[in-house]
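Project standup — Tuesday

K.O.: blocked on the structure for the chain from last sprint. Re-posting the sequence here as requested.
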Amino acid sequence: MISASLKTSARLAAVAAILLSAPAFAGGFDGPWSVTIATQSGNCDAAYAFPMRVAGGRVITSGGTTMSGSVSGSGAVNVSLVQGSSNGRASGRLSATSGGGTWSGTLNGSRCSGYWQATRQ
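H.V.: unblocked you, prediction finished:
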């Protein structure tokens, strides 16, 4: 017969194995972020800045820009943005306090692309 303490130890080991093998919860990136996008190609303004919020691993609208997308448990970002007749897509990666990646889209009728940087607020 297995003792109660051995059963408890076995259960704790099983739970630890499941937690360690599961992907990290994207909630680690939740909260407000400040984002700057810089244009490298196309006839768009040199830079744009706006707030972004992550909640439960989802990018949600913040400021006057409609955003939708996600942040994975490892910090991978995929976002769509719409503001008036302008739209774009961005991808990249967040860390605990900052992040960055690339973007492309049509801003005020011009096709543009570049990079973005984010800082946790």
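K.O.: great, moving the ticket to review. The first strand starts at residue 31 and ends at 41. The chain has one domain: 24-120.
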